[in-house]
Amino acid sequence: MIKQTSLDFLSNLKLNNSREWFEQNRDLYENYRSDILQLTENLLKELSKIDNAILQANLDPKKCLTRVNRDLRFSKDKTPYKNYVLIVFNKNYPQPNKAGYFIHIEPENCSVGGGVWQTTPEYLKKIRQEIDYSFTDFNKIITTSEFQETFPNGIQGVGKLKKMPVGYNETNPASELLKMKGFCTKEPLNDKLLTSKDCIKTVMEFFKTTKPIIDYINKAIEYDE
């Protein structure tokens, strides 16, 4: 679980997104960061028990967190800080284009899931090819009652093609999946859940259910690498 003060810090940062306010409240930031890091360490410990690839990756919890500073180089929005934190557990770190688990913490906009929201054209081609070759296997994962109850919004991604990608046709049983540009599970989390004693247990249930998707995607990406 995390403390309510951590969510409050993010809410206040959204309202006061300036370097002056941040420096005046650096002690609050340090407490918030320590709290989020503790959550990250606890989740990583539990995740390592069910995913051997994560265990062998020896991930540094600090590097599983996004930085609070925003990259302003190409952004019209010049607010200096992110009013959220993204925790990502990816066995292939620092390669962000492969599949991993995530939890997004932002007051009234928290979510959890795993997979690849978007990836490189090379990896996307491999994933589509694997789904075409073994659609039955992929379909078995996403049609189980456990998966559908845990992830009612199904598989999501950064976008979807209007037409079939080159090399595939509409008669393909996996046609709607093959049009996708990302393959990720993502469901909202209630803020109260994150501050409750059931936080770790509940997030881990999401992670356990999305693990087969992550394994499937990474197997496709890593084929012949």
Automatic annotation (TrEMBL):
Classification via Pfam families: DUF2461
PANTHER family for the chain: CHROMOSOME 12, WHOLE GENOME SHOTGUN SEQUENCE (PTHR36452), DUF2461 DOMAIN-CONTAINING PROTEIN (PTHR36452:SF1)
Record protein name field: DUF2461 domain-containing protein
